């Protein structure tokens, strides 16, 4: 039952990628910005969760909520301070700013607490269940269910609420949305808030599942989540979820076949192949750029 | 870097003032040695250590041991009346930083010798500069062969080390697995991004197979990974009775934890790279049961010199129990001080010759002699983790 075990490993990893990828894709969908600081929001969320659990003694769910709230505020702050004034600048200027923000946050955290890693405390009594010969830990089950629940809530917000409708309108055509009386600035902030809250949640989940967190932890998952978002079709929410899961499973399969040293390369080979053969991603429709 | 320099100077001036007040003025008679005449009554030693970054815990631990030893030597009147002044640099656990720190220490601060770095890679990054400028370089814990032997198999003249070398740790682990644990089928899981890990893995493999054992799986990870579950699943399906994981604590902590979660209950073994309190935080007490490490020393060892060191270390650092990096840092200073004393000068070539002649020097981490490859001949200790504590298991001589 090695394969079942590997599939479970892959889905757990993939659901974390998916949560981060959602933030990338939402922000891209609405302002066409690849927010490279997103991986750092994930890292900050992880540290907030760590402090709430180990210093303030909160449980997993309060820590998750606290981290999501704090990250939502943090995401909006980043948007208001760094990106808002660049809204009409070239896209490359905004992209470079995003990289700058990312470096600033990484080094800011290193300056505050040092670069040494921290270990997440055990929040659950970890029991393993035997499932057709594969070991599933209670942690993995909880993490999967939290990720799925968050994605369902997101789908609900985007498709059934007024703010979700407004977000879709702005992403479709910001000018027209403005004419219809939608406050575009607020909607963009809301998008950042939701995306960052998901990254914060991913940070706490990552900490609980993988134990080790450090100020540079956001870099690789951030880049992988970006690949996942492109794979699913950047700007498309279900695409990010599927892209994340596919990427997690592919990486695990590559390791399982004995090519563990190629695991990271696999993600980037996928990125290159997607960009060459299907730049719109799995779920993307080929649309022509408006002139 | 600026800060370090200022604190270094500050510490230096305090030490100098203290000692000058203690012993009366001493005329400098040492005319033939330009360096010593210029510096007067002090011997400058550069510390090039990992004080931040990935393996900060090694470097900082060594700095504690080094500072304790320097304090003791200075209190006892220094080396032939000269006080030791440490100049501390942080190489941020990166080899490029280690190189530039070494250049600065040698050319600007004109140190007599450099102690550091804690890891082999960061030491190798300084070797060429040390050789070129004829400055003695001693790594407290660089266990890779490449620290003292260069690519062409020649000895790096000015490079020395306090710790034993990698192949020795791999050999000890292989013998321990074959003879004490009596296992036949083992797996090796090593870090492909680290020479240290690869070196240990290959010597373990050679000696374990020579002892009649079988390697059923040989897998790799890359430093900074956090997900090891898929490879552990692979290892598990090959049914090993023992897994050798010669890595550094940051990854090993996670590997041990994830392995136990997946129901891998066999003994796990590593080397001195495991030795950090962070390992315990990452893996957790329970997961670490039934794991072994080879190490330089154990504070539980009943030997008199070790118990004495424990006491002095505890007094300086609020009752803290020294780990082996503390001990190696401490020993490195005594090794160097012994050589400077026997050389009777701070001339680097003479210190180097004295170091090469070191024989049966009694250090905390064992009796120390140097062979012709600048490899120490000394003992190794095997420790077992029990409920989060390292228990002294046995001592192995070369």
TrEMBL record, chain A:
List, alphabetically, the GO terms of the cellular component aspect.
plasma membrane
> A GO molecular-function term, please?
L-isoleucine transmembrane transporter activity
User: Sorted alphabetically, which InterPro entries does this protein's record hold?
Assistant: ABC_transp_permease, BCAA_transport_permease
Write down the membrane topology: Multi-pass membrane protein
The transmembrane segments are: 6-29, 64-83, 92-112, 132-158, 187-210, 265-284
- Which CDD domains did the record assign? TM_PBP1_LivH_like
Q: Which Pfam families match?
A: BPD_transp_2
Alphabetically list the UniProt keywords: Amino-acid transport, Cell inner membrane, Cell membrane, Membrane, Transmembrane, Transmembrane helix, Transport
- On the tree of life, the source organism's domain of life is Bacteria
* Cellular location(s): Cell membrane
- Gene Ontology biological process terms in this record: D-alanine transmembrane transport; L-alanine transport; L-isoleucine import across plasma membrane
The entry's family comment says:
Belongs to the binding-protein-dependent transport system permease family. LivHM subfamily.
What name does the UniProt record give this protein? Branched-chain amino acid transport system permease protein
Automatic annotation (TrEMBL), chain B:
Q: Which residues form the signal peptide?
A: 1-21
By sequence similarity, the record places it as follows:
Belongs to the leucine-binding protein family.
Classification via PANTHER family: LEUCINE-SPECIFIC-BINDING PROTEIN (PTHR30483), PERIPLASMIC BINDING PROTEIN OF ABC TRANSPORTER FOR NATURAL AMINO ACIDS (PTHR30483:SF6)
Q: What is this protein called?
A: Branched-chain amino acid transport system substrate-binding protein
Specify the domain of life of the species encoding this protein: Bacteria
Give the Leucine-binding protein domain ranges: 42-388
CDD domains with a match to the protein in the record? PBP1_ABC_LivK_ligand_binding-like
List keywords of the entry alphabetically.
Answer: Amino-acid transport, Signal, Transport
Gene Ontology BP annotations: amino acid transport
